[in-house]
From TrEMBL:
<dbReference type="GO" id="GO:0016787">
    <property type="term" value="F:hydrolase activity"/>
</dbReference>
<feature type="domain" description="Nudix hydrolase">
    <location>
        <begin position="1"/>
        <end position="131"/>
    </location>
</feature>
<dbReference type="InterPro" id="IPR000086">
    <property type="entry name" value="NUDIX_hydrolase_dom"/>
</dbReference>
<dbReference type="Pfam" id="PF00293">
    <property type="entry name" value="NUDIX"/>
</dbReference>
<dbReference type="InterPro" id="IPR015797">
    <property type="entry name" value="NUDIX_hydrolase-like_dom_sf"/>
</dbReference>
<dbReference type="InterPro" id="IPR020084">
    <property type="entry name" value="NUDIX_hydrolase_CS"/>
</dbReference>
<protein>
    <submittedName>
        <fullName>DNA mismatch repair protein MutT</fullName>
    </submittedName>
</protein>
<keyword id="KW-0378">Hydrolase</keyword>
């Protein structure tokens, strides 16, 4: 089973934006699963708007990597694929009703995110983007 997701990589001051969905105790890189025949970009724009109430500028969205890892909370063998994008936004980052909390994580917070997100953390740390 493959869970295909997209994620918004927003780094400020050496920290990455993460969000904790309502009712969950794990933080994730903002984003989610596509609906119907949505493209990665369409999914990203919709998910970020739904979760953090800001509008990404489609002209600035750039693919920065794709990661795959097994998910401990899913059936054995289930893999999450996360296609990661950067992009500028308009508005004020505000958690929507879907999100209980947002936070800016450093590399030290890596254990608080799922395995697929940890792969992104490792690459960002290696590139000097995450402190």
């Amino acid at each position: 089973m493959l869970i295909d997701t997209v994620a918004w990589v927003r780094i400020e001051g050496g920290r990455i934006l993460c969000a904790r969905p309502r009712g969950k105790d794990v933080f994730y890189i903002p984003g989610g699963k596509r609906e119907g025949s949505e493209s990665d970009r369409e999914t990203l724009l919709r998910e970020v708007r739904e979760e953090l109430t800001v509008a990404l500028d489609p002209a600035t969205v750039v693919h920065v990597g794709t990661y795959e890892a097994e998910a401990p909370d899913l059936p054995a063998g289930a893999v999450v694929r996360m296609s990661c994008y950067t992009g500028d936004y308009r508005g004020t980052l505000t958690p929507s009703s879907e999100i209980d909390e947002m936070a800016w994580f450093s590399y030290a917070d890596r254990p608080l995110v799922p395995p697929v997100d940890q792969l992104l953390f490792d690459d960002l740390k290696g590139a000097g983007a995450l402190r």
